[in-house]
Amino acid sequence: MIGVGVIGYGYWGPNLVRNFSQLDDVQLVGVADKRAEILERVGGKYPHLKLTSDYEELLNNPKIDALAIATPVSTHYPIAKDVLSKGKHVLVEKPLTVSSQEAWELVRLSEKNKRVLMVDHTFIYTSAVQKIKDLLLSGELGDIYYLDSVRVNLGLFQHDINVLWDLAPHDISIMDYLFDKLPEEVNAVGISHIGNALENTAHLHFYYPSGETAHVHVSWLAPVKIRLMLIGGSKKMVVYNDLEPSEKIKVYDKGITLIKDEKNLHKALVDYRIGDMYSPHLEPTEALHRVCSHFVSCILRGETPITDGEAGARVVKILEACKRSISNQGERVKL
In the prediction, which pLDDT does 36 show? Predict the structure, then answer.
């Protein structure tokens, strides 16, 4: 049995508590949150848990082997550092930290203490993204040309981070997982429409050395909620709509073929290929359940998580580059 505690019971904390409490090889020990009214709510639902306003009580609890951090982004680094320094495993909400320097420090500390450091990039563990990865590895999509993603809705406006650091980690982590390499350059533009210096809309562009490109549009100021990703390959193309109750992924046998005119080397004809579409079966397992289960499994088996500290650090590195580009009116930034 792995003893687990959760630090932070705000937006995401309740989901972590619920999923950890459902795992057979986990004993959920306690929850820490600074707000007394929140702890009272937790106690009503989980009367057996140790509740505290000071997370250090969980750090010093010998029954706890691992801690999940669901607190504001600015607190991730100091809390995760404390957890790892105490010799406990840690699962951190996205993004891992507010700087890549902090992220790599946590990676080194986890390696030094031989403890699991995992980032909760939840979408990586969805059946949809796992299926897309399978399609890429099998070669069914061919060479990837581009990834185009839209993640917009009305709110939730954050008071401490902009839309880049709030929503874009989802798409960037998916991009990092699918492409399995860093982009060579990025450029980004963003704007705040309410005058608080926190961008609520941003467009991010990524350029890879092999010729692939990616574009991510994130916004808190859209009239509708959209979670849509397009992936264009040389053989087939994928549409991933996360809001679809079923058929979240559709694979299209569509594309183009260039036919060169031998008599005129400067002329090329485009032949359109329009084939069938199918929607693969996806397991309905909740992604966060897989996150929690994978975290515990890596602890028990001594394995490296799919979204380990290094994956989290790469995402932060890309976010930093996008931030620099936005600050410099969209100039290209090399990674």
Answer: 95
